[in-house]
UniProtKB/TrEMBL annotation:
Keyword Hydrolase: yes
Organism: Sphingomonas lenta
EC supergroup of this enzyme: hydrolase
Residues covered by the PIN domain: 4-122
Family named by the database record: Belongs to the PINc/VapC protein family.
InterPro entries reported in the protein's UniProt record: PIN-like_dom_sf, PIN_dom, Type_II_TA_system_RNase, VapC_family
Name of the encoding gene: vapC
EC annotation from Swiss-Prot or TrEMBL: 3.1.-.-
Binding site for Mg(2+): D6, D95
Protein name: Ribonuclease VapC
PANTHER family registered for this protein in UniProt: RIBONUCLEASE VAPC2 (PTHR33653)
SUPFAM superfamilies: PIN domain-like (SSF88723)
Protein keywords: Hydrolase, Magnesium, Metal-binding, Nuclease, Toxin, Toxin-antitoxin system
Length: 131
């Protein structure tokens, strides 16, 4: 495990089977999800009632395929280091929690929204274009 999917990357994998296969092959490693990403994806299941059943099925399949990493005290310490270096930003809390998880586990964040993570010191990024 060398990669951590953020929500934007997880959505790409959830919504496009052919794109998912291609991108996972490029990673050459089973990526992980942060519990924070799982929480965001759970919200997305119910956000659009007409898609809820399909999204529930797809998310359940993802949760069987990818390990989910907890946000623990070491992640909180990594988060503290991020906000000490860059300042507190309420809109960036979730992204910085994902970044902190990656830093704690020594993983590269896979994202389609690099701007959300570029200011995090020491964070490795793999940027995917939006599908």
């Amino acid at each position: 495990m060398r990669f951590l999917l953020d929500t934007s990357a997880a959505i790409i994998l959830r919504d496009s089977v052919s794109e998912a296969d291609r991108r996972l092959t490029e990673l050459a490693s089973i990526p992980a999800l942060s519990i924070i990403t799982q929480i965001e994806l759970e919200g997305g299941v119910v956000a659009e009632p007409l898609l809820a059943a399909k999204r529930r099925m797809l998310l359940d399949a993802m949760l069987l395929q990818f390990p989910v990493l907890d946000f623990d005290a070491d992640c909180a310490a990594a988060y503290r280091e991020i906000v000490e270096a860059r300042g507190y930003s309420r809109p960036k809390v979730v992204d910085r929690m994902v970044a902190a998880t990656a830093l704690r586990y020594g993983l590269t964040v896979v994202t389609a929204n690099a701007r959300d993570f570029r200011d995090v010191p020491g964070l490795a990024l793999e940027v995917w274009p939006s599908a």
